[in-house]
Design a protein that fits this description.
Strand content: over 45%
Number of helices: 1
Radius of gyration: 26 Å
Number of strands: 27
Oligomer: single chain
Helix content: under 10%
Order of helices and strands: EEEEEEEHEEEEEEEEEEEEEEEEEEEE
Largest sheet: 8 strands, antiparallel
Shape: elongated
Structural class: mainly beta
């Protein structure tokens, strides 16, 4: 087959009172086979795109479109068909941009670095990746190669709206520069869900307390003040949870107050549950009412250190996060600030005085 479209749905799903798409982001593979003819020999190739599903909004945030982010292409077939072929990937430059450093090819135990040529305009671009001659490859030998696609999604918060994003297209050209395989890659179809587009961000003021007992010389970071901002354009829905995790063996957390904005007198009603699992004590505050767009809520907390055991097996650093009532909700904008921790990306505490475990 030539010019195959890996398609399940490309419709834009309307929001508001209508239904929109819901699909948990996952890695999927679609298969398409095309006949490759080179110098009179029929050499079938199979092309499998590897994608993960994310979501893009229209400029008015009135609709959401599932988008297939392409991160690898698997090509298999006769070695003679693969050798000297070229992979081309057309992409929407408003959604993604190339990553410097080229590509990597894996064929069995072989790992090769491949050059990548980028062409295009502000709206669309093309990656060109030549396939090399593989070690030990001869005509009649079946080869399977996986090639990384160096694209990074750039249509992210706050620039997460694109007018009519275009799906990626994969082409294979043989040594004669003839297109032998072509496919359009589209996201998996979503299930319906209703509501408005919303987003939330978390900011935390951290404090630290002295530990008691055998760890009296150490200190442990806790959230003293939490602020949740409703990004909009819709309200953070009722049922959304603000979750605070601390180490159950070290501290007991107390929620002192939940109020709107910066006014402690404007108390907000939430449902609170406390559970302990795997050494972590989790306090979940569930919104009874929606949090309007461009408004915020504040949470004041305190903690009391508890006597700890002599040998601390694992340390659970404190963490604050916002979790919607629907997992992987396509209506929720990914702000990148849905969670906060006193631990840096390197795994070290942000505060020098914070307690750390030993290995």
């Amino acid at each position: 087959m030539f010019g195959e479209t890996v398609r399940l749905s490309r419709r834009s799903f309307m929001l508001g009172s209508g239904a929109v798409g819901l699909s948990t982001p996952l890695t999927t593979s679609k298969r398409a086979t095309a006949a490759t003819r080179d110098e009179g020999v029929s050499l079938p190739l199979e092309v499998v795109p590897h994608v993960t599903t994310s979501y893009i909004f229209d400029p008015q945030y009135a609709s959401v479109l599932p988008y297939a982010e392409l991160f690898a292409v698997e090509v298999s077939g006769d070695a003679a068909a693969l050798t000297g072929s070229v992979i081309e990937v057309d992409f929407d430059s408003r959604v993604a941009s190339p990553v410097d450093g080229g590509s990597v090819l894996r064929a069995g135990r072989q790992m090769l670095h491949l050059p990548v040529t980028v062409s295009g305009s502000a709206d669309s671009g093309t990656l060109t990746i030549p396939l090399p001659t593989l070690e030990g490859s001869t005509t009649g030998v079946h080869e399977n190669v996986t090639v990384g696609i160096p694209l990074n999604r750039t249509a992210r918060f706050p620039n997460d709206a694109v007018d009519g994003p275009r799906a990626s297209v994969i082409r294979i050209r043989n040594r004669s520069d003839r297109v032998t395989n072509e496919m359009t890659v589209l996201a998996d179809p979503p299930a319906p869900v209703t509501g408005s587009v919303w987003g939330a961000s978390v900011a935390v003021v951290w404090d630290d307390i002295a530990l008691r007992g055998d760890h009296s010389a150490g200190r442990y970071s806790i959230p003293a003040f939490v602020r949740v901002d409703s990004i909009g354009p819709g309200a953070v829905p009722a049922g959304t949870q603000i979750v605070v995790d601390v180490d159950a063996a070290l501290v007991r957390l107390v929620v002192d107050q939940v109020f709107a904005g910066d006014d402690p007198l404007d108390v907000l009603e939430v449902d609170q549950t406390v559970t302990t699992n795997g050494g972590a004590r989790t306090t979940a505050l569930t919104l009874r009412d929606p949090l309007p767009a461009r408004s915020s809520l504040s949470i004041a907390l305190s903690a009391v250190a508890t006597p700890s055991v002599a040998e601390l097996r694992d340390l659970n650093f404190a963490r604050v996060s916002v979790t919607g009532s629907i997992p992987s909700n396509p209506l929720q904008r990914v702000t990148g600030s849905e969670a906060a921790s006193p631990v840096s990306d390197s795994g070290r505490p942000r505060a020098d005085s914070a307690f750390t475990s030993t290995i």
